[in-house]
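TA notes, week 10

Several of you asked for a full example with nothing omitted. So below is the full record: structure tokens for the whole chain, then the designed sequence directly under it. When grading your own attempts, check the secondary structure regions first.
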């Protein structure tokens, strides 16, 4: 068949390697399953975060509420990834062939969605660690600027993955420079958090730092993966990596912050939080004597 445009232009037009690779039915089903589990988990946890906010001291309730917003936003984006995945392939014989027609699969929606979710996730940190207000605003902005630059340079670069690897790598490096800047800003918040956490809870910000590095670090791996080959396994493994990263950096991260804040609320004298944590028979008796 004669292409109306050069192969390079055609390769760029399909955007992501998902549109270049024929999948076995097992790989296609795995892709659907990974995306379905991801959006299902995000939507379900809206409820968890809204309910859990009620156990916290009022000044901390905004933190799980922000997690609920992130869950809704990411859930919608991942639902869209799922439906696009379903539309992008057609069954030919026993294989799922990308149609490269009007409905092509794209990971670019993810990057668009991060523009919203990442600044929210970062702003949760100084609020949860009770950094006082003018400093909190300053730190939120100082983290969000490199974060958005990291995402947009990565968004531009990822279109190179279908063949233009120098575009993928050059913009990948530029994006990584912003990531390093972001990591430095996050470290500043963690250091402040260690300094003002109650002594019993000081391990939480310390451990969260390593958790942050390990989970946010999965995204550049997913970005670089297409260079290992255009195969069905790479396509599926990449979606799996994105999903593990999504569930870790948004959902589990939100649970960690909420559990930290439950303890902190209790230590700061908020009785419903203390009761929620209390497991001893005496504690239960005291709680019931209070009549609630
Ligand atoms: C990109 C491009 C390649 C280089 C680097 C990247 C980093 C991406 C990160 C994304 C984090 C996203 C989160 C989303 C939650 O909703 C852009 C892939 C370093 C760290 C936490």
């Amino acid at each position: 068949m004669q292409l109306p445009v050069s192969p390079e232009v055609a390769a760029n037009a399909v955007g992501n390697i998902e549109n270049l690779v024929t999948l076995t039915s097992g790989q296609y089903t795995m892709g659907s399953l990974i995306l379905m589990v991801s959006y299902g988990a995000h939507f379900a946890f809206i409820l968890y975060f809204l309910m859990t906010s009620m156990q916290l001291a009022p000044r901390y309730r905004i933190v799980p509420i922000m997690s609920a917003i992130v869950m809704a936003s990411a859930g919608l984006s991942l639902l869209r990834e799922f439906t696009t995945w379903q539309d992008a392939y057609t069954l030919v014989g026993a294989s799922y062939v990308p149609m490269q027609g009007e409905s092509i699969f794209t990971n670019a929606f993810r990057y668009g969605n991060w523009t919203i979710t990442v600044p929210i996730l970062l702003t949760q940190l100084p609020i949860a660690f009770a950094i006082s207000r003018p400093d909190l605003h300053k730190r939120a902005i100082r983290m969000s600027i490199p974060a958005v630059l990291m995402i947009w340079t990565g968004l531009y670069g990822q279109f190179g993955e279908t063949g233009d690897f120098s575009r993928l790598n050059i913009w990948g490096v530029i994006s990584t420079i912003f990531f390093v800047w972001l990591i430095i800003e996050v470290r500043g918040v963690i250091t402040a958090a260690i300094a003002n956490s109650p002594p019993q809870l000081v391990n939480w910000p310390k451990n969260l730092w390593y958790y942050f590095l390990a989970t946010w670090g999965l995204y550049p791996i997913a970005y670089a993966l297409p260079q290992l080959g255009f195969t069905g396994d790479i396509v599926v493994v990449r979606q799996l990596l994105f999903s593990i990263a999504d569930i870790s950096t948004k959902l589990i991260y939100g649970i960690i912050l909420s559990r930290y804040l439950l303890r902190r609320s209790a230590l700061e004298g908020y009785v419903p939080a203390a009761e929620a944590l209390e497991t001893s028979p005496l504690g239960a008796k005291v709680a019931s004597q209070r009549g609630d």
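The pocket of retinal is lined by residues 74, 114, 117-118, 121, 150-151, 154, 172, 175-176, 179, 216, 219-220, 223, 249-250 (CB under 6 Å). Use that as a sanity check on your answer.
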